[in-house]
Write a structure and sequence with these properties.
- The protein has 370 residues and is α/β, with parallel strands linked by helices.
- Helices cover 34% and strands 16% of the residues.
- The chain is globular and about 55 Å long.
- The strands form five sheets. Strands 6-7-8-9-10-11-12-13 form an eight-stranded parallel beta barrel, surrounded by five helices. A two-stranded antiparallel sheet has the order 1-2.
- The protein has helices at 61-69, 89-97, 103-110, 117-129, 140-153, 179-185, 198-206, 224-228, 234-251, 268-276, 286-289, 324-329, 341-351, 357-360, and strands spanning 3-7, 10-13, 21-23, 39-41, 44-46, 50-52, 73-77, 135-138, 157-161, 190-195, 211-214, 258-262, 281-284, 299-300, 316-317, 365-367.
- The model is unreliable at 169-174 (pLDDT under 50).
């Protein structure tokens, strides 16, 4: 990212979002049927480079299973309604029907119900019984308290996800999580984020993360930029972290850490641009919240929206576009990039002549201000 001066003694970096760039076709093309979209992290291989974000409006045990069968990875939020209530469908229905002026306050009350460790075990067992890879998420604040329950329940991939996650958290009144010690003591791959800079990503890579989430998550449901003034445009963030991964690959003697774009991936074109900037996979929220099976019933929200002290998110209406099958694998009935996400990615790669995701990471991009 190039630097500019915004005032005496204060410099800023120029950064770009996915909307600011476009992918450049190469001299050759290929058949979309010949494109391989598979992605592997640790011992787990997936047909598609798609992770469903650990948000209650997106992932339930049922949708995690369905997404797994379609070739992606559904990540269950273990601090959500599914581990607070025996049957949270009543609460999910209420959230979907709340008037806008009381939505956040009422959501804070609903999420005040304590997390029940026995429900963590039940939910993970339900997904495992279906024969798909089990992934579950905790925030950094809850990881130290609950990770033993998660590991004992048999999770395959553990995700530590927060607005911003660092390997070096400083606190005067709380014992912070020693991320490096914690990760190396686990027997499962750990994906950690979000980060947006090379330095932050390298800290997580050195701590042992198998994958790094780039971005602040939330996307359309996020207000962190307005509330905290914190944001990094995703095209630049992904490219910078991908560069840090190359440096760490040399530093570590060949240990490859996956880069996963998490945030501002709302359309199929954003998926292609994220991978073109260096991502191995994408974590999606709002595209999957539009599925008929999704628990949000056409509404979308994340942890930030119901934060008990400082909400930094909205409950947004995204509507219902089709089934999970149609949204992920097609066929599509619309032309706005919200359905057949896998088909669109394959078509983008084929148009540029690439057959593998790692090849497509090297495609040229240009600035495109519309």
């Amino acid at each position: 990212m190039s630097e500019i001066e915004i005032g005496p003694g204060k410099r800023a970096k120029t950064a770009y979002s996915f909307d600011d760039i476009a992918i450049v076709p190469s001299r050759r093309t290929r058949n979309p049927e010949d494109v391989n979209l598979s992605w592997q992290i640790d011992a787990y291989k997936f047909k598609l480079p798609f992770l469903a974000a650990p948000m209650d409006s997106v992932v339930s045990p049922e949708t995690a299973i369905e997404i797994g069968k379609l070739g992606g990875l559904g990540v269950l939020n273990l601090e959500g309604l599914w581990t607070r209530y025996e049957d949270p469908r009543i609460q999910l229905g209420e959230i979907a029907s709340l008037p806008a002026e009381v939505a956040i306050a009422r959501m804070q009350q609903i999420y005040a119900e304590p997390i029940k460790p026995e429900l963590i075990k039940e939910r993970i067992a339900e997904i495992r019984k279906a024969g798909v890879v089990v992934a579950a998420s905790l925030s950094p604040q809850k990881t130290a308290d609950l990770y033993k329950d998660v590991i004992a329940a048999g999770v395959d991939i553990f995700v530590i996800r927060g607005t911003t996650v660092s390997a070096e958290h400083v606190s005067t009144n709380l014992e912070s999580l020693n991320l490096k010690k914690f990760i190396y003591e686990l027997d499962v791959p750990v994906i950690v984020g979000g980060v947006a800079t090379a330095q932050g990503a390298q800290h997580l890579m050195r701590a042992g993360a198998a994958g790094v989430l780039v971005g602040f998550g939330g996307g359309s449901a996020h207000t962190t930029r307005r509330v905290l003034g914190i944001a990094v445009p995703m095209a630049s963030a992904v490219a910078e972290v991908a560069s840090a991964r190359r440096d760490y690959l040399d530093e570590s003697g060949g240990r490859y850490v996956h880069v996963i774009a998490d945030g501002s991936v709302g359309k199929s074109g954003d998926i292609a641009k994220a991978i073109a900037c260096g991502a191995d996979a994408v974590m999606m929220g709002s595209p999957l919240a539009r599925a008929a099976e999704s628990p949000g019933k056409g509404w979308h929200w994340g942890f930030e929206a119901r934060h008990p002290e400082l909400p930094r998110g909205d409950r947004v209406h995204v509507g219902t576009y089709g089934t999970l099958q149609e949204i992920i694998s097609g066929p599509s009935r619309v032309s706005d990039g919200t359905m057949n996400l896998a088909g669109a990615l394959a078509k983008a790669m084929a148009t540029c002549g690439y057959s593998e995701l790692k090849e497509f990471q090297r495609v040229d991009v240009v600035l495109d201000r519309g």
